[in-house]
Amino acid sequence: MQRTGLEANDRREQAGVAARRAGNGRKNFVNNWIQIVVVAVVIAAVFGYLWWQGQIKRLAGYCQETWVELQKCAWPTWEELKGSTALIMVMIVLLGGFIVITDFILTRIFFHH
Fold it and tell me: I want to staple 80 with a disulfide (CB 3.0 to 4.6 A). Which of 12, 56, 76, 92 is the partner?
């Protein structure tokens, strides 16, 4: 009989823990929403200030000028891009090999008499 009483106490205790967790979940949910709203208000305030100062208009002009300059660029063809990529990959492997060999030789010279 005593075991049944202990099991009942355990169940009550587990129910209390579950209720506290549910309460904490609601608090965390509210706190998260408060943080989101505060961040959104700060972002809106910064955006409004920049708009008022004319910085947004300047940024838009900068983006338009950048787009015009990028259209003037001579972009590589797909074949040129593949060739350059392959060349870079080969050079990375060669440089890595050179570093490994040099490290091995210098380690043998200076640390293994």
Answer: 76
Pairwise pLDDT comparison (22 vs 57), residue with the higher score: 57
What is each CA distance from 22 to 35, 81, 94, in whole angstroms? 20, 57, 60
Residues 6+ apart with CB under 8 A from 8: none
Instruction: Clarify whether residues 55 and 80 are in a common domain.
Output: no
Helix (H, G, I), strand (E, B) or coil at 74: coil
Q: Is the pLDDT assigned to residue 1 strictly greater than 50?
A: no
Q: What letter would DSSP give residue 76?
A: P
Confidence of residue 28 (pLDDT cuts 50, 70, 90): confident
Cβ proximity of 59 and 53 under 8 Å: no
One domain for residues 83 and 62: no
| Helices 55-72, 2-53: crossing angle, 10 deg rounding | 80
